[in-house]
Amino acid sequence: xxxxxxxxxxxxxxxxxxxxxxxxxxxxxxxxxxxxxxxxxxxxxxxxxxxxxxxxxxxxxxxxxxxxxxxxxxxxxxxxxxxxxxxxxxxxxxxxxxxxxxxxxxxxxxxxxxxxxxxxxxxxxxxxxxxxxxxxxxxxxxxxxxxxxxxxxxxxxxxxxxxxxxxxxxxxxxxxxxxxxxxxxxxxxxxxxxxxxxxxxxxxxxxxxxxxxxxxxxxxxxxxxxxxxxxxxxxxxxxxxxxxxxxxxxxxxxxxxxxxxxxxxxxxxxxxxxxxxxxxxxxxxxxxxxxxxxxxxxxxxxxxxxxxxx
Length: 310
Description:
Layout: E1 2-9, H1 12-25, E2 32-38, E3 49-50, E4 55-58, E5 64-69, H2 80-91, E6 97-101, E7 106-107, H3 111-118, E8 122-131, H4 137-148, E9 159-169, H5 174-186, H6 208-219, E10 224-227, E11 241-242, H7 254-259, H8 266-274, H9 285-301
Parallel strand pairs: 1-2, 1-6, 2-5, 8-10
Antiparallel strand pairs: 3-4, 4-5, 6-9, 7-11, 8-9
């Protein structure tokens, strides 16, 4: 059994709709989708049926989508390592493959590729801030902290990886344990877990969930298989996904942003092309068409007018 999971709250459900639409468009390799959520569920969801753990509906091709209300009070991004362990051990103990996508991601490639990828090891994507030497002073601090807790560094990396996607097989479940252990190491140094970030990169911890993923990769004995930042659309190349960093497409004022020198990103266009799709149509059709036209026009004009360095 192959399970896709994501986390959503508030307007991030619009992103989850676009994510699932894009997954269906590229072939339903997965057998089930599990969404961890907080706050109220959107009214545009199909009719829900109760399950032992939450609520469920099915996609048109029969794939069940289960919605599980999340416990915990941390910022949602910091719940990832614990959520993966809960998913694997409690919610889906029979599943063999797991795929996590942030709910603002759009999938661009056939889903079966992700299944092929996890046969090679835990699947991880490079971050936009990709270069991060094994002699970087922050990474050396991570190594020293890990070693004080008996976690020896076993792997050398010169790159930094993004926690917005993860793929793994059950036989590699020890990696999730390693990530949880690394998270416990870094959390006390984060400055607070109620926010996405508190400190800056001059500190040992910038983002506890993502830094701890990178520490887990250093201390684990589980094989990993990595693709660079192009996988998330941060660079040209094998753009398996598009991951919008910063303001989310559903929140942007494209007119105002354009005149500030910040034209639409390709990720913005991908979102608006997928938010209404084969499974969900949470946004009025005329609004989708308008935003696609605006994004494409301003993206073209952005070749000539944009903020320096943008």
